[in-house]
Amino acid sequence: MSVLELHIVPDPLLRQKAKKVGSLNGSLQRLIDDMIETMHEAHGVGLAANQVGVLQRVIVIQLPEDEEPRVFINPEIVRKEGDREVEEGCLSIPGYRGLVRRSLKVRAKGLDRNGKTVRVNAEELLAQALEHEIDHLNGGLYIDHLVDRDQLWKETLEEPEEPDEMEEEEPERAPVTSGYTG
After folding, report:
1. CB atoms near residue 135 (< 10 Å)
2. What is the CA angle 68-69-70, rounded to 5?
3. Which among 25, 15, 2, 81 has a CA at the least distance from the CA of 48?
4. Is 173 among the domain residues?
5. Is residue 161 part of a domain?
6. Considering 41, 133, 167, 172, which one is annotated as catalytic?
7. Residue 56 in contact with residue 75, Cβ under 8 Å?
8. Is pTM, for the whole model, over 0.70?
9. 20 to 30 A Cα–Cα from 15, which one of 40, 165, 170, 171?
10. What digits encode the pLDDT tens for the residues 136-173?
11. 166 by DSSP, 3-state: which?
12. Cα–Cα distance between 52 and 20 in angstroms, integer?
């Protein structure tokens, strides 16, 4: 397996629509393995093939609680329900996050890496991941769904404070961040 180069905005490839996969051959299986490796290396939750320069309808997703990554070939959203605002980021727009509109629930279908039809009813992070990654395959980015332009911000890494040697307080816990990066 190899870590592939991530394509970063403003790369025009990210705005192109990916083509439907016709056959599940050995090169597609290598692409899937490389995409999973790349997603893990970049600490992402999902990845679309065009983010690594391949205009094929393939996405991989691995939620924190998943033991194995999910693979969707020729995925499509067949139903959406509700509306919510959530924080989102993207491996192709590093260092930025934004508040976007996404569905509460989605129903999606596609093929797994063995060519078997997969149908999934998703909510919360999985629904968000499916919408985000399928948007990529259609040439879309999360910034197209911003609540408003002021809802995009640069991520900052806070430096931890040096503890006072005289104080014996309970250590602060890192804040739990929500949102999606794919």
Report:
1. 19
2. 120
3. 15
4. no
5. no
6. 133
7. no
8. yes
9. 40
10. 999 999 999 999 888 888 987 655 555 444 444 433 33
11. coil
12. 16
User: Which structure tokens are listed for 43?
Assistant: 């600490």
Two structure tokens written together for 150: 């002021």
CATH of the domain at 81: 3.90.45.10
Active site residue 133: yes
Query: Quick check: is 91 in a domain?
Result: yes
Per-residue pLDDT averaged across 131-136, rounded?
98
Give the number of domains in the chain: 1
The pair of structure tokens assigned to 25 is 């051959």
d(CA 33, CA 124): 26
Amino acid present at 161: E
Please answer whether residues 62 and 72 qualify as being in contact, where contact means their C-beta atoms are separated by less than 8 angstroms.
no
CB neighbours of 5 closer than 8 A, spacing ≥ 6? 52, 53
In a domain, 170, yes or no: no
